[in-house]
Amino acid sequence: MAFQCEYSSMKQTTSSEHWSDRMPQGMDLEITNHPLTMRQVVNLVIAMDRLKGSQSEKVQSSEFRDEDLLNLLLENALDEQLVLELTEAAPPRGFTAIEPSQQCMLRDHQKRSMVLVKEAMGLHAIRLQGGTTDHEVSLNMSTYLDPRPSASAQPVALGIRGTKLYLSCTQKADRPTLHLEEVENTDDLKSISKDSDMVRFLFYRTDIGVSASSLVSALHSGWYISTATEDNLPVEVCLQSESRYRSFTILQG
């Protein structure tokens, strides 16, 4: 039986002869000049440890049975699977943006459009008539991987297309408020630590039924992006108990 170890820093001839003298009778060690991956190193160490331990009692001569090799490989595979499961279980430390962003428009429950009011640095919900739809805001919606994945909610950031303005939710006086903030370096939004104040730019999107979605602040849990019952009033955040519209249709384009 031959074991192949791909390790670049060992010389092919003298090293093989040196280790072959130490191998059990009937076994050889071959060394070639190729770099090892970390997984291959772990597998080799585990295999050699098995051979030195319980299996070494059986490998006293060339009578190394197929059953012995199969048992050794199965034990090694189980150990590797456990290591991989523990590694994959480690959660990410923050929110990571998924490229590319989605271009969309929001319409509230009354089919009103979102219009930018620059003087107030905010959005108003307005029922636009024919010929005035060019005032409607087009958004870039970026989706994120969540450090605490949820089956029903997806973290998103909402920026006004063609600008560096993004919706944010921050505390003001005794309650959170919705703002439009200018982000000088939009690369700062590609990866957001879950403990960073940049979380104010994130909202959890939850789809309701077939075509409606709600948007709740990731920083201030329970505060929804909402519109008033009257026309031409600011888009704000509210609690579920308040009499405002909290669902939106998200239109592509």
From TrEMBL:
GO biological process: cellular response to lipopolysaccharide; cytokine-mediated signaling pathway; fever generation; immune response; macrophage chemotaxis; neutrophil activation; positive regulation of cell division; positive regulation of gene expression
Location (main, coarse): cytoplasm
Secreted is among the record's keywords: yes
CDD domains: beta-trefoil_IL1B (cd23296)
Location in or out of the cell: Cytoplasm, Cytosol; Lysosome; Secreted, Extracellular exosome
SUPFAM superfamilies: Cytokine
A Pfam family: IL1
Keywords: Cytokine, Cytoplasm, Inflammatory response, Lysosome, Mitogen, Pyrogen, Secreted
Coiled coil feature spans: none
Molecular function terms from GO: cytokine activity; interleukin-1 receptor binding
One GO cellular component term: cytosol
Classification via SMART domains: IL1
Family: Belongs to the IL-1 family.
UniProt-recorded name of the protein: Interleukin-1
Taxon lineage: Eukaryota, Metazoa, Chordata, Craniata, Vertebrata
Gene designation per UniProt: il1beta
